[in-house]
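Box 3.1 A note on notation
Throughout this textbook, protein chains are presented in two layers. The first layer is the amino acid sequence; the second is a token string describing backbone geometry. Keep the layers aligned when reading.
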Amino acid sequence: MQFAGIISNIHEKFFANGPGIPDPVKGRRVVVEITTNGQNPDVVDSIIGKLRSYGLDMNIFVVKEERDSHTYPAEEITVPYDYETPRGSRTKLRALQYAINSLSKMGYGKEDYILHLDDDSIVEKDYIKYVFGMSEVAGQGEIRLRDYGAHLMSTLADFIRVSDCDVYCRHFNKKGKAMFVHGEGLVIRADVEYEFGWDYATYGADDVIMGNLVSMKYGFGRIPYHIFISPPLTAGDFYKQRRRWLTAIVYARKKLWDISPRLVLFLFYRYIVGWTGIMGIGYVIYSLIFGFTMPVPILVMSLFNTASYFAIYQYGAMQTNRKYSPVMIILQYAISIYEAATLWYALIYPPDTSKFDVIRKASVGEGYGGAK
């Protein structure tokens, strides 16, 4: 599916008309909401500065905890120490729930859209211009990397995020189904976000849950522009991040299953397919070293799987910076081990689900990632 999706995307890029920006809807307000745990105030300030430079008539809110004493150059929604949700949600879910309640009280509703950003992500100007005219009640664009290269292995491993999103986000969103959802760049109409809320009492997976709840009732849309994210700055951050994602899906599996059994199967399919890459490479290398003769059907499948595995990462490299293409080929096997080890890390060192792992963020400079 990934390989076929990449071929389709390449065809669309060269032979289809480019995306357009719909006319703004009269009276629409766009809220850019940046949720932060207070660990990266300089990065948040830089993101706000970049957003301001677009010159668009949008409202920027920073959702922060009461313990965060930093004053951000935007409107602030401060989550009180003693705030509790009805279902006892914690960390980011708790903050998002408080924020949507606050925005609803301020009068944001059916005419308004909320664009969610983490404190390391940014969208290009046309992304926001598109939101001013979009017809769907929710939607999302595709991921690209910015400030890449600070940690080589994590940068190379994150090429799969670019490829996966270009395939899955684009495929499902164009069909009006969310399925593959990430928190960065998620856009939801304010009244719909208030209707569903963020109080899921899960450890993460909030973006997947929200996106698919909205999609099941109202549909979903593709925003044909990019969200720029930063790869982890260290191996430790990379492993904590991947552990959180995997653990979140496992902990939220019942909630996700209630939304759609197909959704759960798809999410686990993604992880399984990713891990078969190292199996395919290992199988071919083993047969070459020890002279093991594989049955022809298995050999063909292994070779196709291995070729697809290389192609998927090469696609991510080409969408980021072509100079990484030869490096990716050389380190492909090392990257497969680097990624596969995240499963064992999660099993041996499970996270404290009462906390949210803090990942160090890259700054946002003038030359990041191509957003303009």
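Residues 122 and 327 are 27 Å apart (CA to CA). Residues 265-348 form one domain.
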